[in-house]
Specification:
The structure holds 2 protein chains of 2 kinds. Chain A is mainly beta. Chain A contains 2 helices and 22 strands. In chain A, a hairpin with a 5-residue loop joins strand 15 (about 245-250) and strand 16. Chain B starts with 7 loop residues before the first helix and ends with a strand. Classes of the chains: A mainly beta, B mainly beta. Strand 10 (about 180-185) of chain A pairs parallel with strand 47 (about 795-800) of chain B.
Chain lengths: ~325, ~900
């Protein structure tokens, strides 16, 4: 074992420590599953894997509770130097410095986008590195007026965008608008299907889209599900069995997809915000403050190769 | 070669017998017979009962005749007899215990009848006794022209010229025969009847540093000497604490002085759970690892820059999970050389510091055992002789945290985590004397840590599901010989083979399996050329086979994290390769005057992975400005240190082959000052310049590994260390260690220097322990450390594939956690139960419940953060027994 692998071990320990720390301390924060302000919840590509020359259409799942007009900006970061979303932003800045600034498509209300993968995008990439190649799609959504700073001049630690809230003229902090990156994996032959939802159940019974369930509020207002001693409801989002794909990629990497279900709601507390395909059941409770509200829930199913799909339901809190 | 008597009483008897055996040295053409008496171990119960018995002392020696039938055969032999001595000191029976052959046995028994003793004494009266007694028959040299014996006589005195009584003086000839005497109340001694020639005189006295001197004895003359050993330690020690574990500070390879932590200190330092290796964290220059990761951070270096060796063989880890306990139990250690910088040329491939752990020889006298049980683990070790020239030791430890941590986590509210951490380690060794000048040892050690955490549900910050796995293990099989080629030349050879394996995994998202098999060779020779010059030279080589399998996304350049793992494209990549890293070194120790040592040295290192040779000159010096009491010593060093890139940095498909070795320049200067007989002050300043550091940058579409490496990094470390130490007396020990330092790095010359990840400005440790009496001892340790640097987040991006946010960081390590401070308390109670010494202890970490920050946690979009604290309170209750 080399010292570097020891360093990896320490990094792993740090990861573990963070995980434990988050697990232990997460209840101090408002859960990410509660959607109370503008949120972008998902960006789906009709082709999570695309071959050079193909066109990919992207659609979004978002929520704007205050009815503000949304400004959308879209662009791509071809072949970033690493696969993190930060790497995509760094690639944009590099392109802005070394060539013309990447064109943004800016439009109000445009929640979808099409991108055509350049046919020659993989030319010049060593054969052994082609499996690392992606195209990132950048989506910026602002509930108001969006302006773009000079990408070439930005420091990596600051977002090069400004979002002025419609109506108030206030510049919004980054967490009140969205800057998102979606990866399109570049494969010549391999394809990936977006996950497919079989059904959603409420307390064990089928819960079709459009049916509004009713739930009595629990006498609690904290962020801890365990604090609810009253009515709690079991929710299960089930994918079709073949959703989790397995095989070996055209670059020789074996895979077995991880499929997870993320739960969001405008109010209430989930026992677990994220569940897996194998163990999809979670529970939810309405907090006292939501009495009389109609609560929207979104369920987003993701595989770990860029596939995503979603559905939504509504509950009336009594 | 001779066993050390286990008890002071026996040791005196041993010395007397040996000295007496030389009273009438045999003079015979072509052969000589040396007669040695050995007091070997008695049965355990007998030892305990006879602790107050003064053994018989030899008054009249008898020399056996070399058997006529063996003359001309050139045959040597050893006969050990069991003598029965009556209350008047006469030998009433001599039974052969170890035969040297019939003819030699008969000659020995005949000679034994002529021996006369002062009878054994018990409570002031003469009693009968039985002792082992050894005769050695050896082929001798032609007698010198003048064979009249000489002698060494003189006195042992303190630095203030007071006599030192009961000092043990060993006079050893070039052929290895030894005469032991003890100083009287006036501090005087006399070693008579010495064959003319060169002798090494070793002086040991309780409360003083062991001292070695070289003397010449002329025929018919007395060599008069006065020895003044330095005040280093120690109060009279209890027998069970006689073993020392030395934690040496920076020192030249043949150290004149050294920092020593005694076994009592090592076992009783609060907060270390009696672990010798963990005692290092209390030394100056050692930072506290953030998050209790168990890393060794020495003088602002990265953890991977400090090499950890076991008798010259590098091992991958020193501690089990998070530094809980070391991988080698304290009972097996002879010494820990802690070299924070400017170390000798025998150490290479490390540019930070060195920790070299010495495994001690197994006990020769009898079977010994130690067991220890506490809340974390249980261990057992045994050792003892296997015949006259062979001995063994073996030990094992296993944790049992897995038995209770699950329910503890549940009780603490972490219901989503099921944890089962297990660690164990094992050691086994056999040591054999080969002739009188060579000792061979075969030693196996290994360690295994495994952890698996199964999450009930994926986390919302990174929705990876499945189990989190960590399995770290290694073993080393080491064969080692030490040969004394002559009085002034020692030769050590070592070869070791082993396996290191690290397996990490996070669900289906990430897995790493690294297996390396290092074959290490080392040959080291040390020759004293004259009083002024000593030469040290050697070579070592490591041939490493590596087999790596990684299933992961390409590496990013984010030092503090790269956002969610989920849905980043993974690649399976493998590496099979080998690296050959030979090295040669030489050092000349020059002592132009007794108080000055100059140590110029050079080391050359090669790495086949990058085809790069580096030559590193080094220099160290020590000068005793005031050699006597109160001693004042100046010391300093300057040198180059190289460290080859890691395999994954230099081997394809992960690495870049055209790198060169990382380089560090160490400079240090300081002084040591005795303030009183118990108190010593050591102050040292250091500066390290780091060049050609391998820097990684992402290059996903340029290489399969997704990274590009280059020697563009650099760094600098400056600081000072202070150690004020009260050496152990009969009741008290303690010290204050303080380090002030600044460690900086930059990725390339275009950047400004920034704070290094492991920089800690102030590191203060104050500890003390006090024996209350009746077996009770209480101690405390207080530590204050500047908070670890971290990189603040400024905003976050939404990773639309993971459905989670990825932080955007500000300037690297531009913020710090709040300071760490903690008080640890330890209470020991010891019982002497016949042959069993039993100690119960309570080691209480963080006695005042300080919520020390160990990191930060964030909400889902990184707009809010909170401090994550370390363990608020950790009591460890344990039991330790020694036989």
């Amino acid at each position: 074992m080399s010292p570097h692998t020891r360093a990896l071990g320490r990094a792993f320990a740090l990861f573990l420590f963070t995980l434990v720390g988050v697990a232990a301390c997460g209840t101090d924060f408002e859960p990410g599953s509660r959607v109370v302000d503008f949120r972008l919840l998902a960006v789906a590509a009709d082709k999570p894997f695309a071959a050079p020359g193909e066109t990919v259409r992207l659609t979004t799942l978002h929520h704007e509770p205050f009815g503000r007009p949304l400004t959308w900006a879209w662009t791509t970061c071809p072949l970033p130097h690493d696969s993190t979303v930060n790497g995509c932003l760094a690639r944009l800045a590099e392109l802005a410095r070394t060539s013309a600034a990447p064109p943004f498509t800016v439009e109000q209300g445009r929640s979808s986008f099409e991108v055509t993968i350049p046919p020659d995008i993989l030319d010049g990439i060593p054969e052994e590195a082609k499996g690392n190649a992606i195209v990132g799609v950048v989506t910026i959504v602002c509930p108001g007026n969006l302006s773009l700073k000079d990408l070439a001049d930005i420091r990596s630690s600051q977002l090069p965008f400004r979002c002025i809230e419609a109506g108030t003229g206030v510049e919004l902090a980054y967490e009140r608008y969205a800057v998102a990156v979606k990866r399109i994996y570049l494969y010549s032959r391999d394809k990936n299907q977006n996950p497919a939802i079989a059904d959603v159940t409420w307390d064990g019974a089928s819960w079709p889209e459009g049916e509004i369930k009713e739930a009595r509020v629990c006498d609690f207002d904290s962020n801890s599900f365990e604090d609810c001693k009253g009515e709690r409801h079991e929710i299960s989002v089930n994918a079709v069995p073949a959703t989790a794909e397995t095989g070996t990629s055209e670059y020789g990497t074996p895979f077995r997809e991880d499929v997870v279900i993320q739960h969001y709601a405008t109010e209430g507390v989930f026992e677990y915000d994220v569940k897996t395909l194998a163990q999809p059941k979670t529970r939810w409770a309405a907090r006292a403050r939501s009495r009389g509200q109609t609560i929207t829930m979104w369920f987003v199913i993701r595989d770990n190769r860029g596939g995503v799909t979603w559905t939504s339901r509504q509950v009336r809190a009594l | 070669m001779s066993p050390s008597p286990p008890y002071p009483e026996m040791r005196r008897s041993y010395a007397t017998s040996r000295r007496s055996a030389w009273l009438t040295p045999l003079r015979r053409r072509r052969l000589s017979v040396c007669v040695l008496a050995l007091v070997l171990a008695l049965p355990t119960s007998a030892l305990a009962q006879q602790a107050a018995v003064a053994p018989p002392e030899l008054v009249t020696n008898a020399t056996p005749e070399y058997p006529e039938s063996k003359k001309g055969s050139g045959e040597a032999a050893t006969v050990v007899l069991t003598l029965t001595i009556d209350s008047e000191g006469r030998v009433t029976n001599a039974a052969v215990q170890t035969s040297g052959g019939e003819a030699f046995d008969e000659a020995a028994v005949v000679a034994a009848r002529r021996l006369e003793f002062k009878p054994a004494q018990k409570e002031g009266r003469a009693v009968a006794s039985r002792i082992p007694f050894r005769f050695d028959f050896a082929v001798g040299e032609e007698p010198p022209a003048d064979t009249r014996p000489g002698e060494i006589s003189g006195s042992v005195r303190t630095p203030t010229d007071a006599p030192v009584a009961n000092a043990r003086v060993s006079v050893t000839s070039g052929s290895g025969t030894r005469t032991d005497v003890v100083t009287d109340e006036k501090g005087e001694f006399r070693a008579p009847n010495l064959v003319p020639g060169s002798y090494t005189v070793h002086v040991e006295a309780e409360g003083f540093m062991p001292t070695d001197m070289r003397e010449e004895v002329a025929a018919g003359e007395a060599t008069a000497v006065i020895y003044r050993p330095g005040l280093a330690k120690t109060p009279p020690q209890e027998p069970a604490e006689a073993m020392e574990i030395s934690v040496r500070g920076e020192r030249p390879p043949r150290e004149v002085t050294r920092r020593v932590l005694e076994q009592r200190e090592v076992q009783k330092i609060p907060g270390t759970n009696g672990d010798a290796l963990r005692a290092i964290e209390n030394m100056p220059g050692v930072a506290r690892p953030p998050g209790s990761t168990g890393a060794l951070i020495v003088r602002g270096s990265a953890p991977q820059d400090t090499g950890i060796f076991v008798d010259g063989t590098q091992i991958p880890i020193a501690y089990h999970f998070g530094g809980v306990t070391s991988v080698i139990p304290s009972e097996m250690l002879a010494r820990i050389d802690f070299l924070p910088g400017n170390f000798g040329p025998e150490y290479g491939r490390a540019m930070g510091g060195v920790v070299d752990i010495g495994i001690r020889s197994p006990a020769k006298d009898k079977l010994h055992g130690v067991f220890k049980v506490d809340l974390l683990d249980a261990r057992l070790s045994v050792e003892g002789p296997l015949g006259k020239t062979t001995r063994f030791l073996a030990g094992a430890r296993r944790s049992w945290v897995d038995a209770w941590i699950g329910s503890a986590l549940e009780a603490g509210g972490s219901t989503t985590i099921t944890a089962a951490p297990v660690y164990y380690d094992y050691q086994a060794g056999i040591e054999q004397d080969i002739g009188s000048h060579t000792t061979a040892r075969l030693f196996l050690l290994g360690s295994d840590d495994r952890l698996k955490i199964v999450l009930d549900a994926p986390g919302s910050s990174d929705p990876v599901g499945g189990a989190i796995r960590n399995h770290t293990r290694f073993y080393r099989l080491q064969a080692r010989t030490e040969t004394r080629l002559s009085e002034n030349v020692r030769w050590m050879n070592m070869v070791s083979y082993g396996m290191d394996r690290l397996e990490l995994g996070v669900g289906e998202m990430f897995s790493l399996d690294v297996r390396t098999n290092p074959l290490t060779f080392r040959s080291d020779i040390r020759a004293k050329l004259s009083d002024m010059f000593t030469l040290v030279g050697g070579m070592d080589a490591v041939w490493t086979q590596a087999d790596v399998r990684v299933l992961a996304a390409p590496i990013s350049d984010q030092e503090e994290g790269s956002g969610p793992f989920f849905a980043r494209p993974r690649r399976l990549q493998t590496l099979q390769g080998d690296i050959f890293q030979p090295a040669a070194y030489a050092m000349l120790e020059v002592a132009p005057v007794k108080s000055l040592k100059l140590l110029p040295s050079v080391r050359a290192d090669y790495s086949s992975a990058i085809r790069d040779w580096r030559v590193a000159p080094r220099f160290a010096a020590r000068y005793d400005v005031v050699p006597g009491y109160p001693r004042t010593t100046l010391k300093g060093g300057l040198g180059l240190f190289n460290q080859p890139p890691q395999p994954e940095e230099s081997l394809r498909p992960f690495g870049t082959p055209n790198l060169r070795q990382n380089q560090a320049t160490h400079a240090s200067a300081g002084f040591e000052q005795q303030l009183s007989q118990q108190v010593e002050l050591s102050v040292e300043g250091f500066f390290k310049k780091l060049d050609y550091l391998v820097d990684q940058s992402p290059d996903a579409t340029g290489s399969a590994g997704g990274s590009r490496y280059a020697n563009t990094g650099s760094g600098r470390v400056a600081g000072g260390e202070l150690l004020l130490r009260y050496k152990p007396d009969t009741r008290f020990f303690g010290w204050v260690a303080y380090t002030l330092s600044r460690s900086e790095r930059r990725a390339d010359d275009s950047e400004a220097f920034r704070t290094f990840a492991y920089d800690q400005t102030h590191i203060l440790t104050a500890l003390a322990s006090y024996k209350l009496g009746r077996g009770w001892e209480i101690g405390g340790r207080f530590r204050y450390v500047t908070g670890s640097p971290y990189t603040p987040t400024t905003s976050a991006l939404y990773d639309a594939d993971a459905g989670a946010y990825s932080p955007i960081y500000g300037a690297l390590y531009s913020d710090r956690n709040a300071a760490f401070h903690r008080l640890d308390v330890r209470v020991d109670k010891t019982w002497e139960l016949g042959v069993l010494k039993l100690t119960a202890y309570l080691d209480l970490q963080n006695a005042y419940f300080r919520q020390n920050p160990e990191g930060r946690s964030y909400n889902f979009n990184y707009s809010r953060s909170a401090v994550v604290s370390g363990l608020p309170f950790l009591p460890t209750l344990g039991l330790r027994g020694e036989l």
